[in-house]
Design a protein that fits this description.
- With 216 residues, chain A is mainly alpha-helical.
- Helices cover 66% and strands 5% of the residues of chain A.
- Chain A has one domain: Transmembrane di-heme cytochromes, Chain C (Fumarate Reductase Cytochrome B subunit), CATH 1.20.950.
- In chain A, strands 1-2 form a two-stranded antiparallel sheet.
- In chain A, helix 1 crosses helix 6 and helix 4 runs antiparallel to helix 6.
- Chain B is an alpha/beta fold.
- Chain B has two domains: 210 residues, 3-Layer(aba) Sandwich (Rossmann fold), CATH 3.40.50; 75 residues, Irregular (Cytochrome-c3 Hydrogenase, Chain A, domain 2), CATH 4.10.480.10.
- Chain B is 39% helix and 11% strand.
- Chain B is built from 15 helices and eleven strands.
- Chain B has a five-stranded parallel beta sheet with strand order 2-1-3-7-9, sandwiched between helices. Chain B has a two-stranded antiparallel sheet with strand order 4-8. A two-stranded antiparallel sheet of chain B has the order 5-6.
- In chain B, strand 10 and strand 11 form a beta hairpin.
- The longest helix of chain B has 30 residues.
- The termini of chain B are far apart.
- Classes of the chains: A mainly alpha (216), B alpha/beta (362).
- The interface between A and B is large, with 46 and 52 residues.
- The complex binds protoporphyrin IX containing FE and iron/sulfur cluster.
- Protoporphyrin IX containing FE sits at the interface of chains A and B.
- Iron/sulfur cluster (SF4) binds next to helix 11 of chain B.
């Protein structure tokens, strides 16, 4: 089969992706430390401040995470045609059909599948769910970060309840992130093996490879 | 040894020194400059004492007890001195019909002028039959008294948020005052019990400025509940430096390290315990080695427990109320996801071995 190179992911999109991915790694490690500080510095006067440092890194990464989210929301509206929200959201007839054919493809029921440049509809749906949790993580995070702010109290209180509930939700979403990342990485490798469109390298280079005969 | 209550009975008058001291403490709690203290004193010394009706519903009377039995009785006495307590089931001399007459008289005579203090949750299930006083349900009494009051102060977490009897599954349908009263301003002074200073500050603020203090979204006065325990805690340096008690009685605990890992809820609780402290002896739970349990937050009995864990467990639906810790649940779900990935990959490999590569892969 002949393949041709196509430009799919803009630079801004790739920057958003890596900002989000790296910030999640940092947030998960530091967040886990905040949840259960595994070190215990019995030495007094060491001045190493592990908890203060971890929290500091967590909050800085939290702002990177939030910036990445804002960029993604912008691209949902003003990105290129693969990046816009309707390209993969399961609301158009074409995407709903693609949702089922992709599910069949992923469950080995068929080898036939639509060659798409952007996300397939399964990915699109899961990403939308993920952004829902990402927004939840951001809101609970800022609610905890600015506990004395009347604005954040009036947002966080009705949405999540007291600080402890927000913290609990924040912690549970961390586990969602772990599961998402595991499946995300697995399906990327799986796709890369099954069809050589270069899905993994596309997030570095922006390019994907498509069979020459059918066009998306 | 004379107990405080004996002392209170024997010497019901507050000394001038005690009076000024109490007003000064309230001014400090309110964050007022010392220039305001004379104003507070003036308002508190006004012979026109505001009548107060104190209603007791589903509760343990701990709020009243802690108010009146403060080791240094001045605050309790000061409160009794600046208000005219016309109806209070625990401390009034009248009983039975006499007491109820007194209540009716006060709310009629001082309609729109008296302060109503509510202590205790209000059961609403089955017509409110789970709490009755002189044949009337708590709901009826509140509906009778609250609309006629100038303001309602809900003292304690029961009156503010329903309290311990509102814990899952809340068999009596207990709720707080704000769930039932609208039209009359309601201020919440939660805690189990709240610090007498928070109550005194609220009352003095009202007497001095003729309005209730500013509150947060839960109706709690910001002067007492505006900041988190954790941000004023004396063990905070240990937290930042990563020194924790791993369990009660270990070396870290004996050395006074942070109680975060034994479930302290200071990071999630708004209150001024570390600064106001209790019982005039300068103590509060964390200072004596027990973590904060978050008693001034709504639903603390559900959300802040287990008290010695950082976070609540996850109830597994359909699992006969099994509660696993959130972390082990998370790990299990991750394990299931991992297993699913493994099976998916194995099926793919198996299929390829049987059927060969698909078109795309060639
Ligand atoms: C994927 C993203 C994130 C993950 C996995 C994550 C994870 C965590 C975890 C596990 C905790 C500890 C909860 C506990 O057990 O007590 C935590 C705390 C916290 N996180 Fe995040 N977090 C993320 C994003 C954010 C964001 C965007 C912010 C906003 C700036 C934020 C702010 C906070 C704050 C303020 C705390 C409380 C720290 C403290 O009070 O000591 N987090 N996070
Ligand atoms: S003891 Fe509690 S309130 Fe104090 S620093 Fe530790 S976690 Fe915070």
């Amino acid at each position: 089969m002949n393949y041709e190179r196509q430009y799919v992911w803009s630079i801004l999109f790739r920057l958003f992706h890596w900002a989000l991915a790296l910030s999640i790694v940092v947030l998960a490690i530091t967040g886990f430390y905040i949840h259960d500080p595994w070190t215990n510095s019995v030495l007094e006067g060491g001045g190493r401040f592990p908890m203060a440092t971890m929290r500091y890194i967590h909050f800085v990464a939290g702002f990177v995470f939030t910036a990445a989210l804002i960029v993604r929301l912008y691209l949902f509206l003003f990105g290129n045609r693969h990046e816009r929200i309707l390209s993969a959201a399961p609301v158009t007839g074409r995407n709903i059909k693609n949702l089922f054919t992709t599910l069949a493809y992923y469950s080995y029921a068929t080898d036939r599948h639509e060659h798409r440049l952007g996300h397939n509809a399964v990915a699109g749906t899961v990403y939308l769910i993920t952004y829902f949790f990402v927004i939840g993580q951001m809101l609970t995070g800022f609610y905890m970060l600015y506990p004395e702010s009347a604005t954040w109290q009036s947002i966080g209180g009705p949405l999540f309840g007291i600080q402890q509930q927000a913290r609990f939700i924040h912690y549970l979403i961390m586990w969602y992130m772990f599961i998402f990342v595991a499946i995300h990485l697995y399906l990327l490798i799986w796709n890369d093996i099954k069809s050589p469109e270069g899905m993994i390298s596309s997030i570095f280079t922006g390019n994907k490879f498509k069979p020459k005969h059918d066009r998306a | 040894m004379t107990s405080n209550s004996d002392e209170l009975v024997m010497n019901p008058e507050v000394s001038r020194r005690g009076f000024l001291k109490g007003c000064t403490m309230a001014a400090a709690a309110l964050g007022l400059s010392d220039a305001m203290i004379p104003k507070l004193v003036e308002a508190a010394a006004n012979p026109q004492k505001p009548p107060v009706v104190w209603l007791h519903f589903q509760e343990c009377t701990g709020c009243t007890e802690s108010l009146l039995r403060a080791s240094h009785p001045d605050i309790g006495r000061l409160i009794l001195d600046i208000i005219s307590l016309d109806y209070h089931e625990t401390v009034m001399a009248a009983a039975g019909h006499q007491a109820e007459e007194q209540l009716q008289k006060t709310i009629k005579e001082y309609e729109g002028k008296f302060i109503c203090v509510v202590e205790g949750g209000i059961p609403t299930k089955d017509g409110g039959v789970y709490c009755k006083i002189s044949g009337r349900t708590a709901m009826d009494i509140l509906a009778d008294v609250a609309p006629k009051a100038a303001a309602v102060i809900a003292i304690g977490s029961c009156a503010a948020f329903g309290g311990i009897q509102a814990a899952e599954p809340n068999p009596t349908g207990a709720v707080g005052v704000r769930d039932l009263v609208s039209g009359t301003p309601v201020i919440n002074v939660p805690g189990c019990p709240p610090n007498p200073v928070a109550f005194l500050g609220t009352v003095l603020h009202y007497l001095t400025f003729k309005r209730l203090p500013e509150t947060d979204y839960l109706g709690r006065p910001l002067f007492a509940y505006g900041r988190k325990i954790h941000d004023h805690c004396e063990r905070r340096a240990h937290f930042d430096e990563g020194r924790f008690a791993e369990e009660f009685g270990d070396t870290g605990h004996k050395a006074g390290y942070c109680l975060y890992k034994v479930g302290c809820k200071g990071p999630e609780t708004y209150n001024n315990c570390p600064t106001a402290r209790f019982n005039d002896a300068g103590v509060w739970p964390v200072s004596v080695g027990h973590g904060c349990i978050g008693c001034s937050e709504p639903a603390f009995w559900d959300m802040m427990s287990p008290f010695y864990e950082r976070l609540p467990g996850v109830p597994i639906p359909g699992g006969d109320g099994i509660v696993a810790s959130a972390e082990s649940t998370g790990k299990k779900i991750l394990g299931v996801a991992g297993a699913a990935i493994g099976i998916h990959a194995a099926v793919g490999i198996g299929k390829r071995l049987v059927k060969g590569k698909s078109d795309d892969e060639k």
